[in-house]
Amino acid sequence: MAKFHSLFLIIISVLLINSCTGDDYTRIEIETPTENQIFSNGSSIHIKATIYDDGDSIMSEQLIVTSMEDNSIVKEINDNKFCFTYYIDESFVAAPNTKYKIEIKAYGGHQNLTSKVIFVQSN
Q1: What is the pLDDT of residues 80-112, one digit of tens each?
Q2: β-pair partners for 55
């Protein structure tokens, strides 16, 4: 009987340790645009991204598009949607000869901040 209890405790311990080593970090994948992609003046720059976390919830999501020419914010979205997967599907029109910084930020349930930045430009 003592062997059974010891084996049972070992199995429970292993299961608990494995369940605690899961993913605690929010991830961001930007599908479009790609890093350093060049757009024509007046064309639409389509931002498509997914924020997800398999092991925890997402508490806050943010998209900021900044013109590097004058540091002005071209597009900004702040959302406090509680979810496990968050989709961004936004667009803006490219101004002539402008470089843009596209930044996506997300806070996970453990208050960990994840961000991803890419740059694109227009001619």
Answers
A1: 999 999 999 999 999 999 999 999 999 987 778
A2: none
Question: Looking at domain 23-122, which of 1.10.287.110, 2.60.40.10, 2.60.40.1230, 3.10.180.10 is its CATH number?
Answer: 2.60.40.10
If one counts every other C-beta atom within 10 angstroms of the C-beta of residue 120, the result is 21
Specify burial of residue 7 (Cβ count, 10 A radius: 0-12, 13-18, 19+): exposed
pTM (global) more than 0.70: yes
> For 17-47, what is each residue's pLDDT tens digit?
444 445 557 899 999 999 999 999 999 999 9
Nearest to 107 by CA among 58, 62, 56: 58
